[in-house]
Amino acid sequence: MHVSKEKEEALRQRMESLGIFEKDIVEKFIRSSGRGGQKVNKTSTCVYLKHIPTNIEVKCQRERYQALNRFLARRILTDKIEKMILGKKSEEQQRIEKIRRQKRKRSKKAKLKILEEKSKHSQKKKERSFRPHPEDLDR
Length: 139
What we know:
By secondary structure, the protein is α+β, with helices and mostly antiparallel strands. The chain has a domain at 5-88: Double Stranded RNA Binding Domain (2-Layer Sandwich), CATH 3.30.160.20. The protein is built from 6 helices and 3 strands. It has helices spanning 5-18, 38-42, 66-86, 91-103, 108-129, 134-138, and strands at residues 25-30, 46-51, 56-60. The chain has a 3-stranded antiparallel beta sheet with strand order 1-2-3, covered by helices on one side. Strand 2 (46-51) and strand 3 form a beta hairpin.
């Protein structure tokens, strides 16, 4: 497994634009822990990165392949530095927070308000659909 050249190039350009240089990164390879059995115990697929100027550390052992973990670790490091430099939330965090807000339980007051609105709406619909009986019109 290897990352495509386009993705690697895009990451390199992004790192360059943020002022992250390979000479400022300390990279170590560690044996992964957890599931994976013999393969994990024999190879060092976990990647540890430390950005010296910002003192940000990242560890990545998401995948079984060292090359893929190297790419992912650099991407995570770049995200963290970008967040620190720009002082804004990344798009990913904004998306996660939006989902969290959507899933949050409503308060009792909010539930009551919604139920009241629903009952008003249903009342309107009933009134619209009400048609007087033809016998009532003759009187």
